[in-house]
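Reopening: structure tokens for the zinc ion complex, inputs below.
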Amino acid sequence: MEYILDLHTHTIASGHAYSTIREMAKAAADRELKLLGITEHAMAMPGTCHEFYFQNMKVIPREQYGVELMFGSELNVTDYDGNVDMQEYTLRRLDYAVASFHPPCITPGSREENTRAACLVMQNPHVLILGHPDDGRYLMNYEEIVRASRETGTIIELNNSSLNPSGFRKNALENDKVILNFCMKLGVPVVVNSDAHIDADVGNHVYAQKLLDEVGFPEELILNDRPEEIKKRILDKRAGL
Ligand SMILES: [Zn+2]
Ligand SMILES: [Zn+2]
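Re-run output (same inputs, fresh job):
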């Protein structure tokens, strides 16, 4: 299948990433992506941009080098009630959001607490994607997560960076196998994202692809060739607002 979209990437605005928006867009064009989502870390992440950054993103051209761009944020889940580090006023100005657990922003809870937080944040209408749920530092009940994905329309991410052998997330490969097996059993789709922190990594899905092949994951459950379905999910999730 063709991978024509990548919905989780960072630029220099995130504080620990190294390319500009233009460099990321150029890299996406070179890799023949049609849609690139840039999702800077939200404010609880040390060193990232101010909330004003997210409020002014309307000024950025939505097409560069022939690639459609969307601008969101990777929100931090900040407690076990699924709250995030961005106020509603700003959330409404994003094209969409990813929500993730990061050690500087939330201390890992029990399996029950982490699962509860993930299921609740997936109910947030602005949250399109649950980012790297494979991080074994945050134990979760993956069957419940996959069921919550189906109920809320929030997409589970298969994060290519998690599977990089030099990555720092714990047991990601083992955890992704469990997640993908529940997705196959329940017919729930995933999206593969690079989580690129530099232009060279935009659209990179080599580690994810290897795992998908290994578990025999069906192509019809991989959303990376369907930008229109992604956009419809965003509209559907926000329909009640
Ligand atoms: Zn992250
Ligand atoms: Zn990220």
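The beta strands are 5-6, 35-41, 63-64, 67-76, 97-100, 127-130, 155-159, 190-193. The pocket of zinc ion (ligand 2) is lined by residues 8, 10, 74, 195 (CB under 6 Å). Marking as resolved unless the reporter disagrees.
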